[in-house]
Design a protein that fits this description.
Elements lengths: L1 H10 L8 H21 L1 E5 L8 H11 L4 E5 L6 H11 L6 E4 L1 H9 L8 H4 L6 E2 L4 E14 L24 E4 L7 H4 L5 H13 L3 E3 L2 H9 L5 E5 H9 L4 E3 L5 E10 L6 H12 L1 H8 L11 H8 L4 E3 L3 H18 L2 H21 L2
Parallel strand pairs: 1-2, 1-3, 6-7, 6-8, 10-11
Antiparallel strand pairs: 3-10, 4-5, 5-8, 5-9, 5-10
Helix pairs in contact: 2-11, 3-12, 4-5
């Protein structure tokens, strides 16, 4: 499965690591953009984590190579970003230059013609995977699956398959993202048939899990010991481990790898700086910087690839919108079957209101 995944990845045209001779070419391309980018002086990049650009070391590398350009980060959620951009476009005042998201979140912006079309040859001399007619560039593979708390569960007792999640010892000890994204591919990719899949979905609900509205919340609960196993992303679990959290990724087979990419908004105030950042993220230097945090691509030569291969992981890579839409459709059906997401969102809103009231009371 990993070999099949790798072949599909290379065919679909992802960034590859380059030799020194090739590197000069990408440097020349980006140097042509740099003067206009420097004149703009900054860009606003919508991403909640600086690991998306290689963390502090990555930022330092970018600033050293392209002095005079400041990257300002914003953290608007992917679900709210399209509506925000459309409102700003209507008002004629765009505040965000570039953003990091998945193709499914980006599709509406592309449909509304709110993304800049870029010729890949302007910013890179390597093969790249693009969506929506070169308006959205894939920069990383985002693996999501399950993780476990190593303080509560011994490695020998961890689940080895999706079916193992239904063992009696995990009843009430599972923490699940109520949107079902970590299992939807089992049906959309025809790994399981309809009967087996929907019985599994219903049995998970009967297992009385701890429900969450977001994957990040599930991982936070796992870290605090509210359950033995939770849904999670590989990159987030690796980050938590570096901070000392007792967590480990599971890689139940097969796991799903979702595309994550960068788009530039049409009418953005700093388009050249945004294009320069995108080109740098796709460069060997940018890839290496992001690879420290597993925010890179599953290709030979990256640590990310080596880590996943060492784990014996079987990965399915989503490489086109048809597959992404199919998984999204199944995820929607799972959400309806479980029927808990709306209630969770209402609770979150109530908590936010309480926090605001408490803040108002302070003098």
């Amino acid at each position: 499965m990993f070999v099949r995944m790798l072949f599909a990845t290379l065919v679909s045209g992802l960034v590859t690591l380059a030799s020194g001779a090739e590197a000069a070419s990408w440097e020349d391309k980006l140097q042509k953009i740099y003067p206009a980018a420097k004149a703009e002086g900054k860009l606003v990049f919508n991403s909640r984590r600086i690991t998306e650009v290689g963390g502090k070391k990555g930022l330092a590398l970018f600033k050293k190579r392209y002095p005079g350009i400041k990257i300002i980060f914003t953290g608007i959620s992917g679900s709210k970003l399209p509506a925000r951009v459309m409102l700003e476009a209507k008002a004629g005042k765009i505040s965000i230059d570039a953003f990091r998201a998945g193709p499914e979140r980006t599709r509406l912006l592309a449909k509304k013609d709110l993304l800049v079309k870029i010729d890949p040859a302007e910013i890179t001399n390597h093969p790249v995977r693009t969506f929506f007619g070169n308006r959205f560039f894939k920069v990383s593979d985002h693996i999501t699956n399950f993780a476990y708390n190593t303080s509560l569960l011994k490695p020998a007792d961890r689940p080895r398959s999706y079916e193992d999640l239904l063992k009696p010892k995990f009843k009430r000890r599972l923490i699940l993202d109520a949107r079902g994204g970590q299992i939807a591919h089992l049906l959309s990719e025809k790994i399981w048939d309809e009967t087996k899949f929907w019985k599994f979905v219903k049995d998970l609900k009967a297992h009385k899990p701890v429900w969450t509205a977001r994957n990040s919340t599930a991982m936070a609960k796992l870290t605090s010991g509210e359950g033995m196993i939770s849904t999670g992303s590989y990159v987030a679990i690796q980050t938590l481990k570096r901070k000392g959290a007792p967590v480990e990724f599971l890689f139940l087979s097969p796991s799903i790898s979702q595309a994550r990419g960068v788009g530039i908004i049409k009418g953005a105030p700093h388009p050249n700086a945004a294009k320069l950042l995108l080109g740098w993220l796709l460069s060997p230097e940018g890839l290496k910087a992001r690879d420290r945090y597993a925010v890179s691509t599953l290709i030979p030569g990256t640590n990310y690839y080596r880590q996943v291969k060492a784990a014996g992981a079987k990965i399915i890579v989503e490489d086109n919108m048809k597959r992404i839409k199919a998984r999204g459709h199944v995820g929607c059906l799972i959400t309806k079957e479980w029927g808990v997401l709306k209630g969770l969102k209402k609770k979150r809103k109530k908590k936010k209101k309480k926090k605001k009231k408490k803040k108002k009371k302070k003098c």
